[in-house]
Amino acid sequence: MPTDPRRARGVLGERLAEKHLTAAGYRVVERNFRTRYGELDLVAASSRALVFCEVKTRLEGSLRGPATPLEAIGRDKRRQLRLMAAQWLANRAEENRPGPAVLRFDAIGITLTAAGSLARLEHVEDAF
Asked: What sign has the CA pseudo-torsion 78, 76, 82, 32?
């Protein structure tokens, strides 16, 4: 696990989001895919869609930044996610892509307690 506390929280949030997706019937196809535009947190497949999932993790009661993790996914981040998804798709031949042809962008907001346990998880399908 990373030594930077913010990075460690992010890794924990991504693990919790992955566990949530798996429990909800998704198959995680890729984690932390690096592109020239940044990093895609999770790519998952359901029976209905191929999902590019952004995960935001915050500490409960944090005074920095937006009030909820999901509010941190602004216009610029959504644009960046679309670019990263396009690169992910370009790196895979169409016949080797998992899941159906429907593409979707989901957002998962994770709120952790000061002790590092899960306080709240919000999953918004087709968030943008």
From this structure: negative
Per-residue pLDDT in tens (0 to 9) along the chain, 128 residues: 567 888 899 999 999 999 999 999 999 999 999 999 999 999 999 988 999 999 999 998 876 667 789 998 999 999 999 999 999 998 886 656 666 679 999 999 999 998 989 999 999 999 98
Contact 111, 70 (CB under 8 A): no
φ and ψ at residue 55, rounded to 5 degrees: -115, 125
Task: Tell if the pTM clears 0.85, that is, is over it.
Answer: yes
Q: Letter for the amino acid at 124?
A: V
Provide the number of structural domains found in the chain: 1
Distances (CA, A) of 124 to 4, 7, 8, 55: 28, 23, 23, 11
Domain housing 50: 5-124
